[in-house]
Design goal:
- This protein is mainly alpha-helical.
- Among the domains are: 1-33, no CATH class; 36-69.
- It has one helix spanning 36-67, and strands spanning 4-5, 12-13.
- The longest helix is centred in the middle third of the chain and has 32 residues, at 36-67.
- It starts with a strand and ends in a 30-residue tail after the last helix.
Length: 97
């Protein structure tokens, strides 16, 4: 990848979104910066990525709330306690009570 440099001061151009040199401030040649169409496409793609990230974050938060109780402990059931006897369950207790 060849490095573009400001024709005025020789500073490396690392961000093609900037129409001016970030060091000396002169307007850069059009060939060194993104066109309006390129900028629009990049911004639209970033907007879509931001929306997707927000949706994923929201979905993850919902899943986290379903898997943990309000105190942060893990809950195996969405409905909380089964309402059975204290000795009822996988511990081998009598469930007929």
């Amino acid at each position: 990848m060849s490095e573009n440099k400001c024709p005025e001061c020789g500073f490396g151009i690392f961000n093609r979104r900037c129409a001016k040199c970030e060091k000396c401030g002169i307007a850069l040649p059009e060939s060194m910066v993104m066109s309006r169409q390129e900028l629009h496409a990049v911004r639209e793609r970033e907007r879509q990525e931001d929306e997707l990230a927000a949706e994923l974050k929201k979905d993850l938060a919902k899943r986290s709330l379903r898997k943990t109780g309000h105190d942060g402990s893990y809950s195996y059931f969405d409905g909380g306690s089964s309402g059975g006897a204290a000795d009822c369950g996988s511990g081998g207790g009598d469930c007929s009570a």
